[in-house]
Amino acid sequence: MKKLLEMIERCDTISIVGHIKPDGDCIGSSLGMYNYIMDNYSGKRVDVYLEPIMEKFKFLKGAMDIINEPSELIYDLSISVDCSDTDRHGEFANIFKNAKNTICIDHHRSNLGFGDLYYCDPDASSACEVVSRFFDMEKISKPCAECLYMGIIHDTGVLKYSATSDETMFIVGKLIAKGIDTQFIIDETFYRVRYTQNRLTGKALMDSKLYMDGKVIASCIRDEDFEMFGSSKDDTDGIIDKLRVTEGIEVAILGYQNGENSFKFSLRSVSKVDVSVIAVELGGGGHIRASGVSIEGNYEESLDKILKMVEEQL
Ligand code: 5GP
Ligand code: MN
């Protein structure tokens, strides 16, 4: 940890990168790191590179300065947060790869291990929790705390998933003590839904099917469903959580079309199945209870592959 702070101290130009399709934890950890460096180290240039983020995240300090286009700049240091492999940097892979020094901070079990300095805790609730460990709590500003708290809230499903530990709660307590508006962050960034999102969710729940004596639930969203409701991929947020809480379910699977002949699958388990093993085997990654993978081919065939692996574990 000391080495990481020394490296930040030494480097004048710093870039921060996350993963493609950035979620709350990715955005929170990127901007948390950005604000901490801006607040505590003078004379640094810090640039955050992420794909465009949803409107609801734009109240966070630094969100309006996020760069959405790749660049050829060579940074003294590039920090990767919440990203399990360099392929998932997407368009910004070169920014990380070309930097003179690199740091990887993460919490994915499937992390491949990269960067000059590498720190990954697969038992941590979120990248924001891991990032917070590096910081002096006294030096975290209110805007920085908003970013870190927001990310923890998202990756823990509002402090309820199994990776939520006493350390998570200790850090959350320290962040709340900065005077942040916790209810605003929870309601507006986590629970608020669009009308189109409600309708798409309704369709996905209607179409869901049970497998293996009701231990597994799966549903699918196709291009025509997105069109029917004027929805985008953003509207798939939260659907998997509704499938997961169905009575009797151990594994929930949601596939949505992300190409003519390709589906993105979200996998969740409740208490037994390690879905990260399944996702990794199919070319994806994630955590024991929450993973994802994109698979070429039609939905039925890909679902079949996943179901077979779930059955083996069950
Ligand atoms: P979600 O199902 O919400 O998209 O993702 C759940 C978890 O799995 C997240 O931690 C995410 O980073 C990871 N994940 C999702 N899709 C992929 C993928 O295609 N590749 C890898 N390596 N990880 C993924
Ligand atoms: Mn995360």
Distance between the termini: 39 Å
Give the CATH topology of the largest domain.
inorganic pyrophosphatase (n-terminal core)
Q: What is the second-level CATH architecture of the largest domain?
A: Alpha-Beta Complex
Helix content: 25-40%
Give the helix/strand class.
alpha/beta
Describe this structure in words.
The protein has helices at residues 2-10, 24-40, 93-98, 127-133, 142-155, 166-176, 182-191, 195-207, 223-229, 239-244, 275-281, 299-313; strands spanning 13-17, 45-49, 77-81, 101-106, 117-120, 209-211, 216-221, 251-259, 262-269, 285-286, 290-296. By secondary structure, the protein is of the alpha/beta class. The chain folds into two domains: 2-191, inorganic pyrophosphatase (n-terminal core) (Alpha-Beta Complex); 196-313, Diaminopimelate Epimerase, Chain A, domain 1 (Roll). The strands form two sheets. Strands 6-7-8-9-11-10 form a six-stranded mixed beta sheet, sandwiched between helices. Strands 2-1-3-4-5 form a five-stranded parallel beta sheet. Helix 2 packs antiparallel against helix 5, helix 4 (127-133) packs across helix 5 (142-155) and helix 5 (142-155) packs antiparallel against helix 6 (166-176). The termini are far apart. The model has no long low-confidence stretch (mean pLDDT 97).
